Amino acid sequence: MNFDFNNPYLSTRIPIFARNVVSTSHPLASQAGLRILQQGGNAVDAAIATAAVMTLVEPVSNGLGSDAFCILWDGKELHGLNASGPAPKAWTPEYFKAKYGADATTPPMRGIDSVTVPGAVRGWVALSDRFGKLPFADLLTPAIDIAERGYLVPPVVQGKWAAATPLLGSQPGFAQTFLPWGRAPAIGELFRFTAAARALKAIARTKGEAYYNGEIAEALAKFSKEQGGALTVADLEAYQPEWVKPISRDYRGHTLHEIPPNGQGIAALIALGILEKFDIASLPVDSVASQHLQIEAMKLAFADVYRYVSEPSSMTVTPAQMLDDAYLASRARLIDVKKAQDFKAGNPVKGGTIYLTAADERGMMVSFIQSNYMGFGSGCVEPGYGISLQNRGHGFSLKAESPNVVAPGKRPFHTIIPAFLTKDGQPVMSFGVMGGNMQPQGHMQTLVRMLDYGQNPQAACDAPRWRFNAGFEINVEAAMNPATVQGLRDLGHHLDVIDDSYQDFGAGQFIWRAGEPSVEGYVAASDPRRDGLAAGY
Question: Which of 206, 353, 357, 415 is an active site residue?
Answer without folding.
Answer: 353
